């Protein structure tokens, strides 16, 4: 067997094991494992709102007070644009736009740079409920040794962590477990 065939076969086996492991993990841990909500009560120095979910910025409003900076990751997406933030009542001077993030990893790296540049010591990270496990894992790894304290808020979404699963819930859960596996490998192994 040639070296290329061995590498290809090994890659396929690893991919199959990862998918099977993800599905097994999903059935063992269930949907609720994906959801983390720190129930933050204290005011943080800043609020970081991740793009990707229509209700995230609205949900963050319960912690917003004038003078609290709100970092909008990937601020080019409607749900996290300056205009939408202004519509919700966030003061223009409190909005910090970060237009470059494309995924959870870059949400973390780019928001950390902003947090450090501004001298903030704590942040509330707001994302969709099903996305909180991966967000917390990623942000905690990226912010490790930064001295910045993070807490997490799970904005309600279409995802239901209890009761019968809809087709959308199945897709979301399996997709999120696959992404969680990929992020875990990237952050902690490679």
TrEMBL record:
It comes from the Bacteria. One of its GO terms (cellular component) is plasma membrane. Keywords: Membrane, Transmembrane, Transmembrane helix. Residues 45-178 form the DUF218 domain. The chain crosses the membrane at residues 7-29. This is YdcF family protein. It comes from Halobacillus salinus.
């Amino acid at each position: 067997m040639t070296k290329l065939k061995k590498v290809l076969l090994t890659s396929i086996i690893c991919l199959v094991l990862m998918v099977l492991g993800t599905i097994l993990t999903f059935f063992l841990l269930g949907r609720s494992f994906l959801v983390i909500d720190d129930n933050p009560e204290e005011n943080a120095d800043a609020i970081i709102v991740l793009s990707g979910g229509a209700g995230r910025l609205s949900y963050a409003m319960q912690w917003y007070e004038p003078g609290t900076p709100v970092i909008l990751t990937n601020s080019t997406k409607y749900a996290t644009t300056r205009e939408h933030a202004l519509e919700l009542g966030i003061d223009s001077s409190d909005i910090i736009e970060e237009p470059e993030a494309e995924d959870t990893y870059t949400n973390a790296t780019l928001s950390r740079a902003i947090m450090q540049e501004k001298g903030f010591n704590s942040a509330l990270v707001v994302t969709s409920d099903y996305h909180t496990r991966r967000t917390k894992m990623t942000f905690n790894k990226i912010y490790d040794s930064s001295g910045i304290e993070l807490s997490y808020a799970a904005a309600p979404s279409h995802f239901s962590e209890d009761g019968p699963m809809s087709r959308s819930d199945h897709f979301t859960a399996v997709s999120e477990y696959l992404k969680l596996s990929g992020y875990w490998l990237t952050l902690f192994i490679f």
